[in-house]
Design a protein that fits this description.
about 170 residues, mainly alpha, Arp2/3 complex 21 kDa subunit ARPC3, transmembrane helix, transmembrane, membrane, ECF transporter S component
Length: about 170
Protein backbone atom coordinates (compact mmCIF):
# COMPACT_ATOMS: atom_id res chain seq x y z
CA UNK A 1 0.00 0.00 0.00
CA UNK A 2 1.35 3.43 -0.96
CA UNK A 3 1.99 6.20 1.52
CA UNK A 4 -0.68 8.35 -0.13
CA UNK A 5 -3.25 5.57 0.38
CA UNK A 6 -2.27 5.18 4.04
CA UNK A 7 -2.53 8.93 4.52
CA UNK A 8 -5.98 9.00 2.93
CA UNK A 9 -7.11 6.08 5.14
CA UNK A 10 -5.78 7.91 8.22
CA UNK A 11 -7.58 11.13 7.26
CA UNK A 12 -10.84 9.29 6.51
CA UNK A 13 -10.56 7.44 9.82
CA UNK A 14 -9.92 10.70 11.68
CA UNK A 15 -12.95 12.37 10.09
CA UNK A 16 -15.13 9.33 10.86
CA UNK A 17 -13.86 9.25 14.46
CA UNK A 18 -14.55 12.93 15.03
CA UNK A 19 -18.01 12.85 13.49
CA UNK A 20 -18.90 9.66 15.35
CA UNK A 21 -17.95 11.21 18.69
CA UNK A 22 -19.03 14.83 18.29
CA UNK A 23 -22.01 14.67 15.94
CA UNK A 24 -24.13 12.29 17.99
CA UNK A 25 -27.16 14.59 18.24
CA UNK A 26 -29.17 12.42 15.84
CA UNK A 27 -28.80 8.68 16.60
CA UNK A 28 -27.37 6.50 13.82
CA UNK A 29 -26.70 9.39 11.43
CA UNK A 30 -22.97 9.50 10.73
CA UNK A 31 -20.73 9.70 7.68
CA UNK A 32 -18.97 6.51 8.76
CA UNK A 33 -21.45 4.20 7.02
CA UNK A 34 -21.26 6.14 3.78
CA UNK A 35 -17.46 6.30 3.76
CA UNK A 36 -17.00 2.59 4.51
CA UNK A 37 -19.58 1.48 1.97
CA UNK A 38 -18.49 3.86 -0.80
CA UNK A 39 -14.93 2.60 -0.46
CA UNK A 40 -16.25 -0.97 -0.79
CA UNK A 41 -18.48 -0.11 -3.75
CA UNK A 42 -15.56 1.56 -5.54
CA UNK A 43 -13.35 -1.57 -5.26
CA UNK A 44 -11.40 -0.43 -2.20
CA UNK A 45 -12.63 -3.23 0.08
CA UNK A 46 -9.36 -3.49 2.01
CA UNK A 47 -9.34 0.27 2.68
CA UNK A 48 -12.98 0.09 3.70
CA UNK A 49 -12.19 -2.56 6.29
CA UNK A 50 -9.22 -0.56 7.63
CA UNK A 51 -11.33 2.58 8.09
CA UNK A 52 -14.02 0.46 9.75
CA UNK A 53 -11.70 -1.21 12.24
CA UNK A 54 -9.65 1.88 13.09
CA UNK A 55 -12.74 4.05 13.59
CA UNK A 56 -14.54 1.54 15.80
CA UNK A 57 -11.55 0.75 17.99
CA UNK A 58 -10.46 4.37 18.47
CA UNK A 59 -13.97 5.69 19.17
CA UNK A 60 -14.38 2.94 21.74
CA UNK A 61 -11.76 4.65 23.90
CA UNK A 62 -14.21 7.55 24.23
CA UNK A 63 -17.60 5.86 23.87
CA UNK A 64 -16.76 2.69 25.78
CA UNK A 65 -15.57 -0.83 24.98
CA UNK A 66 -17.83 -3.83 24.97
CA UNK A 67 -18.90 -6.77 22.88
CA UNK A 68 -20.90 -4.33 20.74
CA UNK A 69 -17.63 -2.98 19.27
CA UNK A 70 -16.89 -6.38 17.78
CA UNK A 71 -20.51 -6.57 16.55
CA UNK A 72 -20.14 -3.16 14.86
CA UNK A 73 -16.88 -4.11 13.14
CA UNK A 74 -18.36 -7.42 11.94
CA UNK A 75 -21.61 -5.73 10.86
CA UNK A 76 -19.82 -3.14 8.73
CA UNK A 77 -17.55 -5.90 7.37
CA UNK A 78 -20.63 -7.87 6.24
CA UNK A 79 -22.22 -4.79 4.66
CA UNK A 80 -18.96 -3.75 2.96
CA UNK A 81 -18.50 -7.21 1.42
CA UNK A 82 -22.20 -7.29 0.43
CA UNK A 83 -21.97 -3.90 -1.34
CA UNK A 84 -18.62 -4.78 -2.91
CA UNK A 85 -20.16 -7.96 -4.33
CA UNK A 86 -23.30 -6.27 -5.65
CA UNK A 87 -21.40 -3.58 -7.53
CA UNK A 88 -18.18 -5.37 -8.49
CA UNK A 89 -19.00 -9.08 -8.75
CA UNK A 90 -22.59 -8.84 -10.00
CA UNK A 91 -21.73 -5.61 -11.88
CA UNK A 92 -24.66 -3.42 -10.81
CA UNK A 93 -24.23 -0.08 -12.56
CA UNK A 94 -22.71 2.56 -10.26
CA UNK A 95 -25.02 5.57 -10.45
CA UNK A 96 -26.16 8.13 -7.91
CA UNK A 97 -29.50 6.33 -7.60
CA UNK A 98 -28.14 2.78 -7.22
CA UNK A 99 -25.52 3.86 -4.69
CA UNK A 100 -28.09 5.86 -2.70
CA UNK A 101 -30.42 2.86 -2.60
CA UNK A 102 -27.57 0.53 -1.60
CA UNK A 103 -26.46 2.87 1.20
CA UNK A 104 -30.04 3.27 2.42
CA UNK A 105 -30.75 -0.46 2.46
CA UNK A 106 -27.41 -1.02 4.20
CA UNK A 107 -28.38 1.48 6.88
CA UNK A 108 -31.53 -0.49 7.56
CA UNK A 109 -29.77 -3.88 7.40
CA UNK A 110 -27.14 -2.65 9.87
CA UNK A 111 -29.75 -2.65 12.64
CA UNK A 112 -31.09 -6.07 11.70
CA UNK A 113 -27.64 -7.65 11.61
CA UNK A 114 -26.48 -6.11 14.87
CA UNK A 115 -29.70 -7.16 16.62
CA UNK A 116 -29.24 -10.71 15.32
CA UNK A 117 -25.67 -10.82 16.61
CA UNK A 118 -26.72 -9.46 20.02
CA UNK A 119 -29.54 -11.97 20.36
CA UNK A 120 -27.51 -14.94 19.13
CA UNK A 121 -24.60 -14.30 21.49
CA UNK A 122 -25.82 -12.34 24.51
CA UNK A 123 -29.58 -12.08 24.98
CA UNK A 124 -31.05 -15.17 23.40
CA UNK A 125 -33.25 -15.46 20.34
CA UNK A 126 -36.43 -15.39 22.44
CA UNK A 127 -36.12 -11.58 22.66
CA UNK A 128 -35.22 -11.00 19.00
CA UNK A 129 -38.63 -9.76 17.81
CA UNK A 130 -39.07 -7.31 20.68
CA UNK A 131 -35.48 -6.12 20.43
CA UNK A 132 -35.67 -5.66 16.67
CA UNK A 133 -39.01 -3.84 16.80
CA UNK A 134 -37.52 -1.28 19.19
CA UNK A 135 -34.58 -0.71 16.85
CA UNK A 136 -36.67 -0.01 13.73
CA UNK A 137 -36.98 3.78 14.33
CA UNK A 138 -33.17 3.98 14.64
CA UNK A 139 -32.76 1.83 11.52
CA UNK A 140 -35.06 4.16 9.58
CA UNK A 141 -32.99 7.09 10.87
CA UNK A 142 -29.83 5.32 9.70
CA UNK A 143 -31.39 4.58 6.31
CA UNK A 144 -32.51 8.17 5.70
CA UNK A 145 -29.28 9.59 7.14
CA UNK A 146 -27.15 7.48 4.80
CA UNK A 147 -29.12 8.69 1.78
CA UNK A 148 -29.07 12.36 2.77
CA UNK A 149 -25.37 12.37 3.71
CA UNK A 150 -24.46 10.57 0.50
CA UNK A 151 -26.46 12.84 -1.80
CA UNK A 152 -25.43 16.13 -0.20
CA UNK A 153 -21.87 15.44 0.96
CA UNK A 154 -20.20 12.15 0.11
CA UNK A 155 -21.26 12.15 -3.57
CA UNK A 156 -19.45 15.44 -4.10
CA UNK A 157 -16.32 14.19 -2.31
CA UNK A 158 -16.39 10.61 -3.61
CA UNK A 159 -13.40 10.93 -5.94
CA UNK A 160 -11.26 12.23 -3.07
CA UNK A 161 -12.54 9.59 -0.64
CA UNK A 162 -11.74 6.77 -3.05
CA UNK A 163 -8.39 8.23 -4.12
CA UNK A 164 -9.37 8.84 -7.76
CA UNK A 165 -8.48 12.50 -7.25
CA UNK A 166 -5.66 13.77 -5.09
CA UNK A 167 -6.09 16.68 -2.70
CA UNK A 168 -2.49 17.77 -3.27
CA UNK A 169 0.05 16.76 -5.91
Amino acid sequence: MKTSDLTRIAILSAVCILTRIYLNIIPNVKILSDVILILAIEKNLKESLFVNAVTMVVTSFVLGFGIWVLFQVVDFFILAVFNYAIFNVFKLKKTLVTKTIALSVSGFLYGLIITLMECMTVMGMNVFIARYMTSIPFDINHMIGNAVIYIFLIYKLEDYITGKKKIMN
